[in-house]
Specification:
heterodimer, A: mainly alpha, 79% helix, B: alpha/beta, Rossmann fold, Alpha-Beta Plaits, 6-stranded mixed sheet, elongated
Chain lengths: 261, 305
């Protein structure tokens, strides 16, 4: 019947909810500011000091990665948006109202995920392409630049946006499992910042094997123009990160269906 | 119509809901009464498919909540009025609910108007008083024009005018043939609101019936003032009466009617000065019914030995 709850109606409802709270709107703004602002800052500094930069550093200089430096910071803003998107419903208790309107957990999670991933995909790609183009414009004439007409460069910029999008889905999945904002954000930040520190203490032969499985290292491989040593390829990293997200989503959705709201 | 069949919910060691088995009928206001912590909210959450029962099931018009295709069109509920995202406006909160169940936005404006909160509809819910939140919650419950309505402690935080408004609302909803299921821990509130009452304590069913039937089942006492209280007490004891509160003022007698007491006094040759049946108040009935089932009684501090 035309009044039945469908995936489409859940998506429209969740989209209305997503754009009517300040945390998601300010999160999106912070993502833009960090990605583009830090990109502008770093590229301008590099241009200003290029004449005094050593030949060795000039040799390894990568205009793509450098212009995308803001992604490293934006990933935390993205993680907060993805976490709060669900956990704020648990902290306010509004999840009960939501589930009374949409009792099918799988339908609800799917609708929420579609809204989150679609909107943050657009936000991330716009931010990454803007910071890339702006960075190259700032470099132009002084520092070597890269062009999107090179398919590897184009891939690196697109994958930078995909990396951020996948991180939002990862944070959302953690939210499904943990349900608490603080716990969810802490775990997300730990995955990106603490896990790499732990790896440092492993024997060096293990380090090389383990490194490639870290999400932040996958991000490095995805946004790099040349292959990174001991890492998966860019596509391999994308697929591995996607598998992480799918597994966590599966666990999270199962838990949500089984647990009391 | 709401139907509970051997509904049981266990949290670790505690039985929050213990084998509840009853029906809530349409066309009347059914009060769901019990002390705090007696399992009322848990029962309502299970009916709404939010919590999973350990055993048994709860159905609405024969279907479990999760089987409803357009739940807001069939069931409206107000559980916790404050459980709304504080950063969203009242109108956007209702619009999001409406969108998921394909209810037109014009209906959102209608229920806002009906609940008397149109003037604050664009304000953030976080700034709402409890009374305003209750009105918003009721607006949300009415959104899909449902036949079955559940309200958990709806009068909390309402001013007297709001309490009156909500009672009138329940009455008109029931008169329209809808099922109205209202929980409360206050017998006095239910006495003026509900037609039928279901009493639970510690998750267990205690009794069910109309207000009048419930008061009638409660043991009334008879206050007696007589010329010789000691002789009268002996006479009443032999007739099976229970005498308490013996003092110079008079006797409080239970288990005997005033007719039987009068006859006993006449037989014993004791002059009666006063014979007054004391009808149990609704509050007394409730206390008596739930005496064994109060989760957090005020029976003094328990010392660990």
């Amino acid at each position: 019947m035309s009044r039945d709850v469908t995936l489409g109606s859940v998506v429209r409802s969740e989209w209305l909810k997503f754009r009517t709270v300040r945390s998601s709107i300010s999160g999106v703004i912070v993502t833009f500011v960090l990605t583009i602002g830090l990109g502008a800052l770093v590229t301008s500094l590099l241009r200003a000091h290029w004449s005094t930069t050593s030949p060795a550093r000039r040799l390894t200089f990568d205009p793509v990665t450098t212009s995308l430096v803001g992604v490293i910071f934006a990933q935390f803003a993205i993680g907060v948006i993805g976490s709060l998107y669900l956990t704020s419903e648990y902290s306010s208790g509004s999840i009960r109202t939501t589930l009374a309107a949409v009792p099918n957990r799988v339908q609800l999670v799917s609708g929420k995920l579609i809204v989150l991933v679609t909107s943050l995909f657009v936000v991330s790609e716009v931010a990454c392409f803007t910071t890339f183009l702006m960075g190259q414009a700032i470099f132009s004439g002084v520092v070597p630049t890269a062009s999107l007409s090179n398919s590897t460069v184009l891939r690196a910029v697109i994958f930078a946006g995909l990396y951020l999008t996948l991180l939002s889905a990862l944070a959302f999945s953690l939210g499904l499992i943990l349900r608490q904002s603080a716990a969810c954000i802490s775990v997300f930040v730990s995955i990106l910042l603490v896990l790499p520190l732990i790896i440092i203490f492993l024997p060096s032969s293990w380090q090389n094997d383990a490194m490639r499985f870290l999400p932040n290292e996958m991000g490095r491989a995805m946004t790099s123009v040349s292959p990174v040593a001991n890492h998966f390829s860019a596509l391999g990293s994308l697929i591995t990160l996607l598998i992480y997200v799918v597994v966590l989503l599966g666990i999270g959705t199962t838990l949500m269906s089984r647990r009391d709201a | 119509m709401i139907k509970l069949e051997h509904l049981t919910k266990r949290y670790h060691e505690t039985l929050a809901v213990d084998d509840l088995d009853f029906e809530v009928q349409p066309g009347v206001i059914t009060g769901f009464l019990g002390p705090n912590g007696s399992g009322k909210s848990t029962t309502m959450r299970i009916i709404l498919g939010l919590d999973h029962p350990t055993k048994g099931r709860a159905t609405i018009k024969g279907k479990r909540y999760g089987e409803l295709r357009a739940p807001l069109h069939e069931v409206g509920a107000l559980l916790d009025a404050k459980a709304i995202h504080p950063g969203r406006s009242a109108r956007n909160h209702l619009r999001a609910l409406a969108t998921s169940n394909r209810i037109p936005f014009s209906r959102v404006d209608d229920v806002l108007e009906f609940a008397g909160i149109t003037s604050v509809a664009n304000k953030k819910v976080g700034n709402f008083s409890l009374g305003m939140s209750q009105r918003l919650g009721i607006a949300g419950a009415l959104l899909g024009d449902p036949e079955v309505l559940l309200f958990d402690e709806p009068v909390n935080g309402l001013d007297p005018e709001g309490v009156r408004w909500i009672r009138d609302l329940f009455r008109s909803l029931a008169n329209e043939g809808r099922t109205v299921f209202v929980s409360s821990h206050l017998m006095s509130e239910m006495a003026v609101t509900a037609d039928q009452i279901i009493v639970i304590g510690r998750g267990r069913f205690i009794t069910q019936g109309s207000i009048d039937a419930l008061t009638a089942t409660a043991k009334g006492t008879v206050f007696v003032r007589a010329a010789n209280h000691a002789r009268l007490t002996d006479a009443l004891n032999t007739k099976g009466g229970v005498v308490s509160d013996v003092n110079d003022e008079g006797l409080s007698v239970s288990e005997l009617t005033s007719d039987q007491i009068g006859q006993a006094a006449f037989d014993a040759g004791v002059a009666i000065y006063e014979l007054t049946p004391q009808r149990a108040s609704l509050e007394d009935v409730f206390m008596e019914l739930t005496a064994d089932a109060v989760e957090y009684g005020s029976s003094g501090v328990r010392h660990e030995s």
